[in-house]
Specification:
Helices cover about 40% and strands about 15% of the residues. By secondary structure, it is an alpha/beta fold. It has two domains: about 200 residues, Glycogen Phosphorylase B (Rossmann fold), CATH 3.40.50.2000; about 190 residues, 3-Layer(aba) Sandwich (Rossmann fold). Helix 8 links the parallel strand 8 and strand 9. The longest helix has 20 residues. The mean pLDDT is about 95.
């Protein structure tokens, strides 16, 4: 049963994602909000999520409790792994939106036909629309594609009442395609604040024990953590090369968390070049990943493209980790900012990455200052902050329709 007299909100999402669900729960618990989350895919819950991991993944945490949800008809067959518009094309969402007559529809993305069907259906009943999409302007397209996209998105976004942005680069993108300042609301990706704060408090005192469990010697030195899918876009081979150069001069370790197509090449290089102190931990699920953050001293992500935010960066900050990021990581402007908690390097500058990494490896006082700043930055970007912005956007969209 819904909450009588409340705003009826439908939230259309591609699939249950661990770092997004805490926000849905906060919205559902808010006074005056009656939320239903509509999933186009059951990937990760009832069917495996592929998404570049190299194997099927089922999330090992509860992603459906604490809010009302329903799945579209083809949910068990849909696997939203790419950005092809036709990959999700669920026409049943049209009838659902029209029957439910939501006051506001929140659309996670715009690029799939399912989203376009839902936005069109919501507009046909006169309801409000809120958009959340993670894109940014860090990866410019060719002139012809840019002009086509500009025309299309300005037209589409003109039908949307409000948008939430996850960070400053995302806000720039939304403004570029026509959203006005009063239509924009901050809802940062802060992941599951309660979970990571509690796990950091429990696990950081066990750092020495955790390092041993991963297979590092006690005198390994600072440990650099890579936690991502091992795919070309993330450039794990660049981080490995930067580490190799530092390891020639400084004692340190590299913990590689994740799986994907680049893993075979990474292992081959470690063996061929005799790179010491590299541990491959494989894919770690939600119940395990915090052990890696707590064991590490530095976090690195040197993506070349497609990193619209980098949620793992936010997760790393809960454990006070200094950062080494490329300039194509979407969250760098928010979570690294002025460089007070790490270093930003060009996506193709392996020498610069090695130099920055060596400075952090060599200087424990620098790492301590960066660690304190990392903890400070993430404290203001938790899920409660995201929920406040999300609820403001929902209420703005509802009021816009009334006007």
């Amino acid at each position: 049963m819904g909450k009588e007299g409340s705003l009826r909100v439908g939230l259309l999402a591609p699939s249950p994602i661990p770092f997004k669900v805490p926000l849905y729960r906060r919205i559902a618990a808010a006074d005056g909000i009656d939320l239903t989350v509509i999933y186009a895919s059951s990937a990760g819950v009832r069917s495996p999520s592929i998404g570049g991991y190299g194997t099927g993944v089922y999330w090992d945490s509860d992603l459906l409790g604490g809010y009302r949800s329903r799945f579209l008809a083809k949910a068990d067959d849909n696997l939203p792994n790419r950005f092809a518009t036709s990959e999700l094309a669920d026409s049943d969402v049209i009838g659902l939106v029209r029957r439910e007559r939501f006051d506001v529809l929140w659309s996670e993305g715009y690029n799939w036909l399912t989203n376009l069907f839902a936005i069109g259906a919501q507009r046909s009943i006169g309801g409000g629309v809120v958009l959340r999409d993670t894109q940014n302007l860090l990866h410019p397209r060719g002139l012809a594609k840019s002009l086509v996209k500009q025309l299309w998105l300005v037209g589409l976004f003109g039908q949307i009442d409000a948008a939430v942005y996850i960070g400053r680069e995302n806000r720039r993108w939304l403004e570029h395609y026509g959203f006005t300042p009063e239509q924009l609301f901050s809802a940062p990706y802060g992941t599951d604040t309660d979970k990571f704060v509690a796990e950091a408090r429990e696990l950081i005192p066990r750092r020495r024990e955790l390092r041993s469990e991963f297979g590092f010697a006690e005198d390994v030195g600072p440990i650099v953590l890579s936690a991502s899918r091992l795919v070309p876009a993330k450039q794990p081979l660049m981080l490995l090369e930067a580490f190799r150069r530092v390891r020639l001069r400084r004692r340190c370790g590299l913990l590689v968390v994740g799986s994907g197509e680049e893993e075979t090449e990474m292992r081959a290089r470690v063996e061929a070049q005799s790179i010491p102190d590299v541990i491959f931990a494989g894919f770690l699920n939600q119940s395990e990943i915090s052990r890696a953050y707590a064991a590490a001293d530095i976090f690195g992500l040197l993506s070349a493209w497609g990193e619209t935010y980098g949620v793992v960066v936010a997760e790393a900050l809960y454990f006070g980790l200094p950062l080494l990021l490329s300039d194509k990581v979407g969250s760098a402007g928010d979570l690294l900012g002025d460089g007070g908690n790490g270093y930003l390097v060009a996506r193709d500058d392996v020498g610069g990455a090695a130099d920055a990494l060596e400075r952090m490896v060599a200087d424990p006082e620098l790492r301590a200052r960066f660690s304190a700043e990392s903890s400070r930055k993430i404290a203001a970007r938790g899920v409660d902050s995201a929920a406040a912005g999300a609820l403001a956007a929902i209420r703005y969209a509802a009021e816009a329709r009334r006007r």
